[in-house]
Amino acid sequence: MMVFKRSPLFAALAAILLASTALASEPGDYVVEDGKVDPSTYEGYLVYTRACMACHGPDGLGSSFAPNLIQAAERLGWAEFAGTIAAGREIQPGQVMPSFADDPYVMGNIPKIFSYMLARGEGGLGRGRPQIIESMQEETEEAADAGEDGNEAAEE
Ligand code: HEC
């Protein structure tokens, strides 16, 4: 039986794939429901606003100085998006994308920034500060209790 012969390999591969997706959420995962988002994507909005907006414009839309990051996230994909932030870039002379390699706050939050950009693009999330989906709110409170986001209070 074909299925029987092939199944050990497929089962092994499937087990590896399932384990890797179950253990960690993928960079770029997001949930958008009624214009609200999951806590990670919300944090992506906060990090973007603090670290990137001055150049890239409000809500990822780009400015006269730096490109739209909603389109960039979809075009570049995860590896190149993250790599550009780590390494910096200057394709057009004088328009410098700084390297964030020495900034642990940004480096640790690139997956969340990526999620926010994908949510804004393919996820259809609107402009402005999103709200968190109520049923997912608890995760954020636990994270705040654990001291993971000490800036949260200042932002409110
Ligand atoms: C000092 C201004 C400045 C800041 C701050 C900044 N960027 Fe940039 N970024 C730029 C410029 C300018 C470019 C275009 C560089 C070029 O032409 O090569 C760019 C390019 C990029 C690109 C490539 C875009 C594309 O279309 O290929 C990504 C991704 C990016 N920035 C992400 C970020 C993220 C995420 C942050 C915040 C953590 C950030 N940038 C903060 C100025 C900035």
From TrEMBL:
Keywords: Heme, Iron, Metal-binding, Signal. InterPro entries: Cyt_c-like_dom, Cyt_c-like_dom_sf. Gene3D superfamilies: Cytochrome c-like domain. It comes from the Bacteria. Residues 39-121 form the Cytochrome c domain. Residues 136-156 have a biased composition (Acidic residues). Residues 134-156 are annotated as: Disordered. Coiled coil: none annotated. Pfam families: Cytochrome_CBB3. Residues 1-24 form the signal peptide. This is C-type cytochrome.
